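Bumping with the actual sequence this time:
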Amino acid sequence: MQDITIRNASLADAPRILEIYAWYVEHTVITFEYDVPSLEEFEGRMRRTMQKYPYLVIERDGRVEGYAYAGSFVGRAAYDWACELTIYLDHDARKHGMGRALYEALADRLQAMGILNLYACIGYPQAEDEYLTRNSARFHEHLGFALVGTFHNCGYKFGRWYDMVWMEKILGEHRPDQPPVQPYIY
């Protein structure tokens, strides 16, 4: 039986998390990033996220197999109740339920902070190819996200143009006396 744990990420996890991410940069259009960031740059990204939002890892039998985090949706105060989500699993760890478990844990923590709207920015192929399928959009749809917009031919990678879609999930009630969002406490 596999031992699955979801926990807060730490900077000590950065090398493994970067290893997971690097595969997607080099082999897919799931990220529109061209070059794998340095470990130092990646640690800086993690630090900035951890100032306000959860950054989680999922371990299977003690090995980090994926990560997910939230970030500022736009960066203006009026958007504080909305955030953008990111998730990556080791390319050999997909289709085992870990993505769902990790995303649900992230959503629970965000809801506890007072976040109401979740957004996902997803690379989307006009026709599936060896670099990009529609699996990410399907994954989000299965988790209750709905398509809210498409940007056509906005990403160029591996000599091809790709669309990008935005998907949304509403977690809570929007009230006129909405309490402020609380920063995530590690």
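The tokens above came from a reply further down the thread. Residues 6 and 105 are 8 Å apart (CA to CA).
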